[in-house]
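WARN retry 2 of 3 for item q-0093 after timeout on previous attempt; input resubmitted unchanged.
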Amino acid sequence: MTLSKSARNIWANAYAPYSNFKVGAALRAASGTVYCGVNVENVAYPEGTCAEAGAIAAMVAGGDTKITEVYVIADSPDPVPPCGGCRQKLAEFADGSVLVTMATISGMEKTMTVSELLPGAFSANHMKGV
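OK item q-0093 returned
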């Protein structure tokens, strides 16, 4: 199954009772395994957790730690980029050249690299010598 279909299939499962803004994400790990996630809101944290973070958590729980491709989908007029926190998480688990495709339910897509989404990302190299 493609990342697009995986993200589309999981999108409807998002739990967004406060914003009604559902987001689905699928990523491919270096092993070839596809992991999915959705945004999840709750009364104590109504902005919730992000779909990309959920997919990354599933990937790590599945024993993988390297992302090779990402697809994010939402019912929005324009493709929605990952939030700042998810951009940093993506930079932690993906090379800067990894493609992130952002899509709408209506079919519009925009693709950028992780480095384009988060130029100057903080990394372990910043802590060398500490």
